[in-house]
Amino acid sequence: MDGQESWPEIEKASKEKRRELVLQGAVIDEKISSNGGLCSAIYSLKLLNYLEIIQCPSLTEIHGDIQNLTTLTSLILCRNKLSSIPKTIGNLKSLKVLDISVNNLNALPEEITQLSDLNTLNVSCNNIESLPDGLCHCTKLSTINISKNDITRFPDDFYRLDLLSTVIASENAIEELSGDVLKLSALKVLDLSNNKLSDIPYELSDCSKLKEINFKGNKLKDKRLEKMVNGCQTKSILDYLRAGGRGKGKGSKQADGDGDKADGSRNAEKTQTKKQRKQKKKKTEEEEDEVDELNRLVVKVLHVSDNPGAFTVKVANELKDVRPYLVCCVVRGMNFRSGNALKRFLVAQTKLHDDLCGKRTTATIATHDMQLLKGPLMYDARTPPMLKIVPLGRKEMTAVELMRQLQLEAEDQRKQRKRQNVSGLHKYLQLLDGKQLYPCLVDAEDHVISFPPITNSERTKIRKTTKELFLEVTSSTSLQICKDVMDALIVKMAELNKFTFEHREEAGSEGESDVPPDPASDGTTSGELVIQQVRTVDPDGNLKVVYPSKTDLCTDVGDLNVIW
After folding, report:
1. Which domains are present in the chain?
2. What's the pTM?
């Protein structure tokens, strides 16, 4: 039953006729728990365009009165404990974005298919076993994320979504990708990693706009194709499918058209000597081993004990109730000089922030140019007026001034765009609501180099000339989340560096192209990365965590080779 006690957050939104409302965290969760649900007054805010209720484990249901919010265009209900979604959601005809990820959902109501304006659907990290039939009625659907569920198949009409450009369906139990995938003419990104696929249809190569695919973690019948999906780029895989692979796909169709030649070929194979067959088998195995070796991502770990001057980060006790979890490491061997290498890295970091980091609600990544750091470092908690930083692209200011400036910019964005959604740093302001102390990473000269989850410092910004990176991941949730995010970041860096090494792009501009590559200075070859361990200690010097340890970087990426 919905609680009847008035909530100041809702009263303020009603009084100011606001079109955006964000409710999150422990304070809201306690209200939901004590009231037995959301305050019923929330369903009377009929001017709302944007409603976000996240990180409230006590929120197990949404009342059917949600249908009253007919002007909603974005509904974000992630990281709660919702066990169901009301059927009345189908009445929200203006809804464009629906995010109900990280809940306890077992099924989706069929009424979701009535959301004809829906553009983005995120139902990841639930227990959903199937998607409702009729999704084709969501004719504007462009992005769908169904990862980390128990889904076994795509509904037949799924392939009729003409505008669908991004499909994230990793970590399910999907057994088949239909050849009808070629009907998804707008498809650009397809992630079906860690499912139960045994084949990849050759028709996938007819998706002309496809730029990124991921089939890692599937046990494919074609073992060479399986090795390729674990290491090769999208173009190579599509070319292989287009050529028919090993007697499959389009190539097999052409072979069927010439039966006599095919029969002759088979007879010739039968007459081969045992020695010839052995030689052919050996050659095939050598080729596959060569492909496997070329696809391998190499990461070498340097121990703290092997480097007496290794960085150590001291963590203040005051962070216990602010943002207590931190892991760090140093990475050498990244090549940002070539072409768009730096841009690709920054895009990958943003994607990790949006996906694995839950839009920075669970964790935040920060990267620094190691040559610009002065250690030892201190992970501290300071009052907003005492925290001074030079934010990326801005002049030095206190946290109070920065937050005020970002708030004003957010309001200007809303007015200029005539909508409630904001972009950039402005999306993360609410993550520090109610905090008396702000977390920050400080160098030996008391310069704040990081202010999570908001921004980094311009002082340590990475550039094309950066040879050595200091990476940090912070979280208010758990240490394991920090490690998982750092693992994913390093794997992605290894993949990007391998891509840069293989494609030999011309050096970028920005006045830095005259800096010659010097891989020898990093001790790396063939895109290999070197990871230097970093110790995190308490104020008394007692070890809290060292990253990476032997239990880290144990990913399911079959081609990742970690050298200890």
Report:
1. 9-128 (3.80.10.10), 298-502+526-562 (3.50.40.10)
2. 0.56
